[in-house]
């Protein structure tokens, strides 16, 4: 940031160190937080408001200013999340005595529930895969691991052989998630079976140097990218006759929804998904309520009309 801006460069450097060393955020995440600060810095500079003089009313005006810049509600929420994080840091580090974001409301978003697949639809996806092709068992294993373990696609593409603990007395994956936070995720017998088929096929491949420990590889022996998996799943949905708009993340949503329907509590689901806040996990209570309503309308005797 330029020296004539309202947010001191030394504060920004301290904040960046805090995000990296204390919060454990990746370079990409830290960069996003710095971009959030640049929005606030531009606003304060336009209004000639010093950082130590910022009040709740100024931040409310900032939200309006973001809207005037053509920034949508979801992006506004992300930016405000970064701004709250910055002011919490200033309070924690003794730069401020009060946090002006404490009573700041976020812009409301229209309720949007993510698409989910039923277990039967996941089975249809897997059944549509041509196992005579070299990548057949690989693609089945990818879909089953995403659905059975609820991984982010970024976690799947970086999954390594040393992260697999699928021996006789074991049955879990070691996952390095967002913020370099590690968690252990149980893996189903079906997912272990599909993985085992793929690992046998994998032994026959010529693998590039440096790629030997990645679980999922392309035909050139290099690890897969998120885009490759997205394309594969969308193509497979067409093959299976599934008309829903799905992505790898759909299988993660489906995993969480099935857990909730099966009786798992939100805290357990939060741990399995690697969510930092249980608030993120609570969307699945809305999903399950929506599903239950559809089931009741379809099957409860008070809603079924007798045929004439």
Q: Total number of helical segments? A: 13
Global Rg: 24 Å
Q: What structural class do you assign from the helix and strand content?
A: mainly alpha
> Mean pLDDT, as a whole number?
85
Q: What is the makeup of the main sheet?
A: 3 strands, antiparallel
H and E order: HHHHHHHEEEHHHHHH
Strand content: under 5%
The percent range for helix content is 40-55%
Cα-to-Cα separation, first versus last residue = 74 Å
Low-pLDDT residue spans: none
Q: Please give the number of β-strands.
A: 3
Main-sheet strand order equals 1-2-3
- In one word, what is the shape? elongated
Brief digest:
With 308 residues, this protein is mostly helical.
Features:
single chain; 308 residues; mainly alpha; three-stranded antiparallel β-sheet
Explain what you see.
This protein is mainly alpha-helical. The protein has helices spanning 9-22, 27-47, 56-68, 73-92, 119-127, 136-149, 153-157, 189-202, 226-240, 248-261, 266-273, 278-281, 283-299; strands at residues 164-165, 172-176, 182-186. The protein has a three-stranded antiparallel β-sheet, with no helix packed on it. Helix 2 packs across helix 4 (73-92), helix 6 (136-149) runs antiparallel to helix 8 (189-202) and helix 10 packs across helix 13. The radius of gyration is 24 Å and the shape is elongated. The mean pLDDT is 85.
